[in-house]
Each structure stands twice: as structure tokens, then as C-alpha cells.
């Protein structure tokens, strides 16, 4: 069995598992605070609604099953997630209009590079990471500059360029400026 088929099976299983979690989540007990702060005492909430924890859902690689299955289930339950997209990947570009609907339904898009192919050197990494950031700033309405979440793809062929690191590269490509 080749490795790309194995990776595809793992991703399909992961999406299925996360979809199942979304379906079952409403029946699970919620992590609410149990007592109100008495009048006159100060209490700083760590999470919105004074919840004890937060649960993040993140999807990557721009698979059509994200907008076909996961997004409708999330919307039905009043939940949001971050979808890390790859604008030059066929699965994304073929359905770009559907991804616009994903944003309109309240979901967040994150940077997962332009091609998911890795990169060699500073110029190539700028195109992959910076290009995706600029694409998202244009594609998703909102004020600029703003924070764009980044997830490094799972390929192993990375070279950030001599003297560069991922942190320095993200600082250069961020619309907010260097860190």
C-alpha cells in the first residue's frame, strides 16, 4: 500500500471522527462554572461565558467533505471551526465559491500554504506562506491588518532559506508586521 493512499485513509478517518464528535457533542455535559461570583468579589473568567475549558475544531487541506459534511453539522449546532485552506490545491480552487459560503456561515479560514508542496528557500517560502496570507486577506472580508492562523503542512520538504526560521518568516509575511 503506498503512503499517499495511507495518508488519504487517515485523513478520511479523521474527518469522520471529527464529524461524529460534532454529532455527539450536544449530548455531552458542558463545562460550565457551577457557582456565580458573589456581589462585591472580583472574578476573571478564563473563557467566554465563564466556561472551564474550550474545545477547538480545526480542519486542514481543503477537502470538499469539510463544506459538504462538517460545516452543515457545525452550523446546525451553533459551533464554529477553523479550516486551513490551500488555495492552489485542486480540491480548493475547484470549489472556491463553496468556501466563500463557508466564511459566510461564520467559519474561519486559516493559512495552510498556497500549494501544500513544501518550499525551498526564502523566496519560495514567501510565495507559499505570504501568498496564502494575502489571498485570505482578499478573499475573506474584514478589517486589515488582522490575525491569520497558520498551520504548517505535514510534508517534510522545507527549507526556509539561510538564516531564516518559521518564526522570522511568519513575522515577515504577517500583515501585522514583524513580531
From TrEMBL:
GO terms for biological process: carbohydrate metabolic process. One of its GO terms (molecular function) is hydrolase activity, acting on carbon-nitrogen (but not peptide) bonds. InterPro entries: Glyco_hydro/deAcase_b/a-brl, NODB_dom. Residues 51-129 form the NodB homology domain. Coiled coil: none annotated. Pfam families: Polysacc_deac_1. This is Polysaccharide deacetylase. It comes from Chthoniobacter flavus Ellin428.
Amino acid at each position: 500500500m503506498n503512503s499517499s493512499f495511507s495518508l488519504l485513509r487517515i485523513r478520511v478517518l479523521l474527518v469522520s471522527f471529527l464529524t461524529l464528535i460534532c454529532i455527539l457533542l450536544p449530548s455531552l455535559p458542558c463545562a460550565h462554572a457551577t457557582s456565580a461570583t458573589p456581589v462585591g468579589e472580583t472574578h476573571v473568567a478564563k473563557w467566554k461565558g465563564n466556561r472551564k475549558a474550550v474545545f477547538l475544531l480545526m480542519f486542514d487541506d481543503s477537502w470538499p467533505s469539510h463544506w459538504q459534511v462538517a460545516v452543515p453539522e457545525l452550523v446546525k449546532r451553533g459551533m464554529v471551526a477553523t479550516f486551513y485552506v490551500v488555495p492552489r490545491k485542486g480540491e480548493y480552487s475547484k470549489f472556491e465559491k463553496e468556501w466563500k459560503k463557508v466564511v459566510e456561515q461564520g467559519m474561519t479560514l486559516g493559512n495552510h500554504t498556497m500549494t501544500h508542496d513544501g518550499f525551498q528557500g526564502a523566496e519560495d517560502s514567501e510565495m507559499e506562506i505570504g501568498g496564502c496570507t494575502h489571498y485570505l486577506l482578499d478573499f475573506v472580508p474584514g478589517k486589515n491588518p488582522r490575525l491569520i492562523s497558520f498551520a504548517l503542512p505535514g510534508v517534510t520538504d522545507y527549507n526556509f532559506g539561510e538564516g531564516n526560521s518559521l518564526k522570522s518568516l511568519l513575522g515577515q509575511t504577517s500583515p501585522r508586521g514583524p513580531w
